[in-house]
Specification:
This protein has about 60 residues and is an all-alpha fold. It is built from three helices and no strands. The protein has helices spanning about 5-20, 25-45, 50-60. α2 packs antiparallel against α3 (about 50-60). The mean pLDDT is about 95.
Length: about 60
């Protein structure tokens, strides 16, 4: 895989796989976004690096 966002893409894909295997974490993300989606998008989803890091944080939480 080549490209400018190779590392971010890899982190996001891994976070998605992790979230898929951890239903409590996925539910936590969904609940958080249901109350804070607009603010979350402005703060974390504007740039690939921050989006990747934030998804990774939700995926790796101990719930």
């Amino acid at each position: 895989m080549e490209g400018r966002y190779k590392t971010c893409a890899r982190v996001v894909a891994k976070a998605i796989r992790t979230l898929a295997s951890k239903p409590d974490n996925l539910e936590n993300l969904e609940n958080y976004l249901s109350h804070n989606f607009g603010e979350w998008v402005e703060k974390y989803a504007r740039y690939p690096e921050t989006l990747a890091a934030e998804l990774q944080n939700f995926a790796n939480m101990d719930i």
